[in-house]
Write a structure and sequence with these properties.
Shape: globular
Strand content: 15-25%
CATH architecture: Orthogonal Bundle
CATH class: Mainly Alpha
Number of strands: 5
CATH topology: Arc Repressor Mutant, subunit A
């Protein structure tokens, strides 16, 4: 599956506070390899349903999150397009 292109009119969002669990999730999903749900659960200490809700929340905030499947790793998630960060 080819990555979706970012919309030219990207939304502006406030990024989470540095060091927060949301920031950790964004960092993990921003890597080229992405992250599995189990890795996100382990890193944050959240329950699986909370982790899924966090992914849905990121989508609502303008992040384009791809879901892919690999025979070795299983299902993993990756941010394909970050929204523009708001400046203070």
């Amino acid at each position: 599956m080819a990555p979706r292109a970012c919309d030219e009119r990207e939304p502006t969002v406030l990024l989470p506070r540095a060091g927060s669990k949301q920031a950790l999730v964004i960092d993990m999903l921003s890597q080229d390899t992405g992250a599995t749900r189990d890795a996100l659960v382990k890193a944050t200490g959240w329950l699986p349903h909370t982790t899924r809700a966090a992914l849905a929340g990121l989508r609502k905030r303008g992040f384009v999150i791809e879901r892919e499947r690999d025979d070795a790793r299983g299902t993993f998630y990756r941010i394909a397009c970050n929204p523009v960060a708001a400046r203070d």
